[in-house]
Design a protein that fits this description.
- The complex is a heterodimer.
- Chain A is mostly beta strands.
- Chain A has strands spanning 5-7, 10-13, 19-24, 31-37, 44-50, 53-57, 64-68, 74-78, 87-94, 104-105, 109-113.
- In chain A, strands 2, 4, 5, 6, 9, 10 and 11 form a 7-stranded mixed beta sheet that branches. In chain A, strands 1-3-8-7 form a 4-stranded antiparallel beta sheet, with no helix packed on it.
- The model of chain A has no long low-confidence stretch (mean pLDDT 93).
- Chain B is mostly beta strands.
- Chain B has no helices and 12 strands.
- In chain B, the strands form 3 sheets. In chain B, strands 2, 5, 6, 10, 11 and 12 form a 6-stranded mixed beta sheet that branches.
- Chain B starts with a strand and ends with a strand.
- The mean pLDDT of chain B is 93.
- The chains are: A mainly beta, B mainly beta.
- The A-B interface holds A 33, 35, 40-45, 48, 55-56, 58, 88, 90, 92, 99-101, 103-108, 110 and B 4, 33, 37, 42-47, 50, 91, 93, 95, 97-109.
Amino acid sequence: DAGVTQSPTHLIKTRGQQVTLRCSPKSGHDTVSWYQQALGQGPQFIFQYYEEEERQRGNFPDRFSGHQFPNYSSELNVNALLLGDSALYLCASSFFETMNTEAFFGQGTRLTVV
Amino acid sequence: AQTVTQSQPEMSVQEAETVTLSCTYDTSESDYYLFWYKQPPSRQMILVIRQEAYKQQNATENRFSVNFQKAAKSFSLKISDSQLGDAAMYFCAYWRAQYNFNKFYFGSGTKLNVKP
């Protein structure tokens, strides 16, 4: 079992650009959640996808959008990048029917905006 | 809104000794879960221990145990016989158990140093 895999592991972008981060959930999981972890802070919830729909959203602007594919994998897109978007982006997968109480995290994508 | 507070930004412990990490949270809900996650330099969040709010018995996992005080909204982690591999960031997290409304609320973390 490969667990949760995220790509790429590191990324450097210029302010104003757009970025796409990818996540493949653990085998058997159908729900993907995205978190932003700024340096020295705890992760903050961005949104959650289940059945290819955004089910919940945290306090993030519309520049942050996502998608879930039929194979349950997910993408996080950020438009018009700001310096403040520099962070570790974590993906967590879980199984909806267990109310997602057992979540597994990927190793994250470190995004640096310059 | 739920908040999770970790008041110890950094802690140190001697190898083989015991250390306790503190966490408090704020909620008006009665049904929820509490977690401790470990984040080593590899960045992956690893589940250490989980506590269901409706269970009065404190959870234990080998050298890790919690002291769950529901009325006080306190959830501390005790690490016994500390090992060098325990060195990492530790995050306390709250999870509201409800369909279509479940997500983690994390604290700001405690960096644990283990001295040989």
